[in-house]
Amino acid sequence: MTRPTPPHLRLLTGVHRERARGTPRVPASCPEPPTWLSPMALEEWHRLGPQLAAAGVLTQLDAVAFGLLCQSFADAIEADDQIRRFGKIVRDKGTPRLSPLVRIRDAARQQYLALAREFGVTPASRTHITVGPPALNDDDPTRRYLG
Q1: Structural domain includes residue 135
Q2: How many domains is the chain partitioned into structurally?
Q3: CA–CA separation, 36 vs 130, rounded Å?
Q4: At 98, which helix (H) or strand (E)?
Q5: pTM, to two decimals
Q6: Domain-embedded: residue 101
Q7: 96: part of which helix (H) or strand (E)?
């Protein structure tokens, strides 16, 4: 399987075509956080949300998916803290076995990475994110003037 050619190389070879994407134009903004976020997830929301909104990636439609991203981050960190406290190995009737916290942490990390790719948070995924021009607000006086 061949790897996709990076955009800057496609520009150099003259094979770069902008793909028409049928995505609706929604104004970028940082939505209100869901009430079900843990305190650590809420911190991540306030840290990352404004950056993604400023980049034009986060909209009001993304509140639940972005909330899941923040909560999976918090779950992974909290599970990691518990692993440090209790260890990776637990004894079950005298038999050592892997702590369930390791599986919880690993699942949270996988979910975080999957959602991070959706929002362009990882370096490789940023090359696949295309943000169109911002949607114009109907209350924009410039739009009313130009009609």
Answers
A1: no
A2: 1
A3: 30
A4: strand 95-98
A5: 0.72
A6: yes
A7: strand 95-98
